[in-house]
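Known limitations

Structure tokens in this collection are predictions and should be treated as such. Users comparing against experimental data should check residue numbering before alignment. To illustrate the layout, the record for DUF721 domain-containing protein is reproduced below. The input appears on top and the generated tokens appear beneath it.
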Amino acid sequence: MNHKKGTLEPVGVSLADILEKNHLAVPLKIFLLKKDWQKVAGEQIAAFSYVQKLHGFVLYIGVLNSVWMQHLFMYKQKLIQNINQYLEEAIVKDIRFVHSGKEKTSSIYSEKTDRKTSSVSIKNQVLSKEIVDKIQMETSHVIPELRDIIRKVRYTQEKKYKLIVKWA
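Generated tokens:
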């Protein structure tokens, strides 16, 4: 990205570069996939499943019961195709169906990480002022409509990282 400072250009020209530079392109796409899961998978499938996370090139899908898990397994390649078509690039190479055994959460930010001895909610993690300031500075140049979404994704990333470091 070679742009002169102080020159104005349409945000669409540099937005992709900004997202790539800040390692936010894939997390933003996964965030949008979670949000639009019903459109991507279909209403009936989305009623019994939800996107949990992307780890490498493997997408983890929570499924409410074993019957639907078997059904989705038969449509695995079609789901991968639909997901990658939605993401507009081949990010997902494989899908792992995980029996969640409970209703999916209404908020996509209320993911939980369970460990052997305790259960810790990401929502309860508090980020330091330095991290919040850093994220706000990194995203200050993004248009307001996307800025809040990107900040929420980055806050969630930092909270997850904090949990991983805490439990490692």
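For this record: The CA atoms of residues 55 and 92 lie 9 Å apart. The first helix runs from residue 11 to 21. Please report discrepancies through the issue tracker.
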